[in-house]
Design brief:
By secondary structure, this protein is of the alpha+beta class. The chain is 21% helix and 43% strand. Strand 1 and strand 2 form a beta hairpin.
Length: 134
Amino acid sequence: MTTEAQRPVAAAVVVQGERVLLVRRRVAEGALSWQFPAGKIEPEETPGEAAARETEEETGLLVVPQSVLGQRVHPMTGREIYYIACRPVGGQAVVASGDEVAGLAWAAHGEIPQYVPYGLFEPVQNYLDAALLS
């Protein structure tokens, strides 16, 4: 049985136009301050459903999961994480959960290293290269 702390995480990779949505955590996880909207996958959820729910809870943006970009144990947190490509379908991105999120940004491709200086998971970077540079 998976405990609460061991539950995998789903991260939503939301692209709109030529930008990707990033949120700044109120409480950083080590070096992780800016990241994709993300949270624990509930027992009855798929990773895609969790990514969509977390995006709405944290930013108010309604998204539809499109595909799983990849899965790994995050090298900084030790948590299993699924990266889900999501398409926005409604709402406006704002800081909807002030206790979790301190800010948000729509980052252009060239701006991502300013927010995520340690680099992105290769399948996510490849997806963003294709989505943001096309």
